[in-house]
Structures are given as C-alpha cells and as structure tokens.
Specification:
There is one protein chain. By secondary structure, the chain is mostly helical. The protein has a domain of 152 residues. Keywords: Membrane, Transmembrane, Transmembrane helix. Its main location: membrane. It is a multi-pass membrane protein. It comes from Vanderwaltozyma polyspora (strain ATCC 22028 / DSM 70294 / BCRC 21397 / CBS 2163 / NBRC 10782 / NRRL Y-8283 / UCD 57-17) (Kluyveromyces polysporus).
C-alpha cells in the first residue's frame, strides 16, 4: 500500500530552500564584487554556506529522482543536520557583521596603516569603510543592502532546514528504526522494500516492507516464530489416546 503523504507540501519547502540558497549565494557574490573583492572575510562564510547548500539541494533533488531506492536514511539525516548547522553559523555571523557596521562609512582623525596609505588618509579625510577596510569616499550602499537581503534569506533557510531535518527524522528515520533498528539507517531502500519520495527525500513513498517484527538482529523474531510453529506441530503428535485403547492393548 502506497503512503498517502502528498508531494506538494514537501516540494514547496524544497523549492523555497533552493531559491533561498540561490539568493544568498548571488547577493553575497554581488556585494563582494561591488566591494571590489575587498569584503569582510567573515561575510564570505555566508557565501560558502550558500554554495554548499545549493550543491546539496541539487544532489538531493536529482538523486531522489533518479535513485529513490537508495534511501540511506542515516546519511540523509546527517547531511541535513550539517547544512542546518552551517546556516545557523552563517546567519549569525553575517547578521552580526551587517548589524555592527550599519552600512555606513566611518571617519577617524587618527591614521591607521591597515586602511591604506597616508596619502589615501589625507585624500578621503580619514573616511574608511569597515567592510573593505580601505580609506574611501564610497558608501557601497548597494553592496551593503545586498548583504542585508542575503541575511534575511539566510535566516529563512535556517528555519527551513530545521523543518526538513525534523521531517527526515520523523518520516524517514523513525519508520526504518522501528523496523530494523539502528542498522537500518545505512541500508538501501531496495533491501527494506521502500523508497524515498522523489524530488524531496522528506518522507518514504512506500512503507517499510512487512516482515516479522524487529528484535535484535532483525531476524530473531522470525526464527522464534518458526520455532513456536515447529513446537506446536510436534505437540499435535502426542494427543491423548481415546478411552479403552490401553485396555485393548493389554488384552
């Protein structure tokens, strides 16, 4: 019997994850370019997270479309959890940097060589940008606003990956561990009679194959059932003899 969970809600979640990852990657890349490739190194963490999650989403969507019977629930859950943790760290880092600098240049009366030469200090009147760490008279407003937008989408994807990580645990891991124990987390779907939902991988499209209940190695209950069946058959051979049979034998 096929599982009744619709693909539409899970597909919508995956779509927004993919779109958000694309926007995070694109917006931070644009900001870095607008900063003349001198953006704050901590901002690049957000760019890396966007690229990694984009690659992961493509692997999940294409992989479940072509090979839904692979399953490997444990590997899927670990991957979801890793990307979720990356987004949490990336979101916090980028949000802190954007909030700290407030998208505006600062002015100092003291020359600092890390921002450029003394000539630049005098030319720009001590005005510098904390994202580029350079003396400049440019505000880089577009780049900074792009970082703000990227931060918002990174926050959205953080929440979405929390949701999908939970869904994988409930809809994929739990049915498999209930049937096969922890050893089932790294089994293929074909060995368990099930498949992942195509495109999303957030639930099983078919229930875990019916067999004897899991106990120990997964086959122990089946062996016990066979043993009980054999014992019952043997007991039938020792039914109580009818009355009078014993006396006839003595005669």
């Amino acid at each position: 019997m096929a599982m009744s969970k619709s693909i539409l809600p899970f597909s919508i979640i995956r779509f927004f994850q993919f779109a958000s990852a694309t926007l995070v990657m694109s917006l931070i890349a644009f900001a870095t370019r607008d900063f003349h490739h001198h953006s704050n190194p901590k901002i690049n963490l957000g760019l890396s997270v966007g690229v990694i999650s984009e690659f992961y989403m493509l692997c999940v969507m294409i992989g479940t479309l072509l090979f839904p019977s692979l399953v490997f629930a444990g590997l899927l859950f670990i991957s979801e959890a890793i990307v979720m943790c990356l987004y949490i760290s990336g979101f916090i880092t980028v949000a802190y940097q954007v909030g700290k600098h407030h998208c505006r240049d600062r002015v100092t009366d003291t020359y600092n060589p890390k921002y450029g030469s003394l000539a630049d200090f005098n030319e720009y009147g001590g005005r510098y940008n904390e994202f580029t760490n350079k003396y400049t008279d440019k505000s880089f407003g577009r780049a900074c606003n792009s970082l703000k937008a990227a931060t918002a989408f990174a926050g959205l994807n953080t929440v979405l990956f929390m949701v999908t990580c939970t869904l994988v645990g409930i809809n994929v891991m739990r049915p498999i561990t209930n049937k096969y124990g922890m050893s089932g987390l790294f089994k293929t779907g074909s060995s368990m009679g099930t498949k992942l939902q195509r495109f999303t991988g957030l639930t099983l499209s078919e229930p875990v194959g019916d067999s004897y209940g899991y106990s120990g190695s997964g086959m122990q209950d089946a062996e016990q059932g066979n043993a009980y069946s054999t014992a019952d058959s043997s007991n039938n051979n020792y039914q109580e003899k009818p009355a009078g049979t014993e006396g006839n034998t003595t005669a």
